[in-house]
Amino acid sequence: QVQLVESGGGLVQAGASLRLSCAASGRTFSSYLMGWFRQAPGKEREFVAAIAGLGRTTPYADSVVGRFTISRDNAKNTVYLQMNSLKPEDTAVYYCAASTRWTMKQEQYNYWGQGTQVTVSS
Predict the structure, then answer these.
(1) Which distant-in-sequence residues (6+ apart) come within 8 Å of 6 by Cβ?
(2) Residues 8-29: tens digit of each pLDDT
(3) Which of 23, 27, 81, 85 is paired with 12 by a 20 to 30 Å CA distance?
């Protein structure tokens, strides 16, 4: 079992930065692929970024390339999402998730956090 707790969301103006954190329980954190997803009001949840266990592979959604950076600290059982140059369209609830397989499909993630709200005003 893995429990995930996100933090770091908030209300910011367009162009600002935020860093989301996701703290995981368990002793096998480095064995999990970690992903960030988001769900905007009235829209389906979508993939944002993922990071392999050792952090060497980090795919991103096209909409965040060059602005968002995913990273992880396995010693702290934590994954981060650094979000720069935020836009109003980035407004969403952001979720972290853990998977035992290499995937960007949310249905293949085994564990989910409760989500943290990010609101970007224009």
Answers:
(1) 20, 21, 22, 94, 95, 96, 113, 114, 115, 116
(2) 999 999 999 999 999 999 879 9
(3) 23
Three-state DSSP state, 63: helix
> Side-chain half-sphere of 106: how many Cα atoms within 13 Å?
15
pLDDT at residue number 96: 98
Residues of the chain with pLDDT under 50: none
CA 68 to CA 60: how far, in whole Å? 8
Other residues' Cβ atoms within 10 Å of the Cβ of residue 65: 10
Instruction: Report the pLDDT value the prediction gives residue 27, as an integer from 0 to 100.
Output: 78
Q: What are phi and psi of 120, to 5 degrees?
A: -115, 120
Q: How far, in Å, CA of 84 to CA of 67, rounded?
A: 5
Angle at 84 between CA 34 and CA 95, to 5 degrees: 30
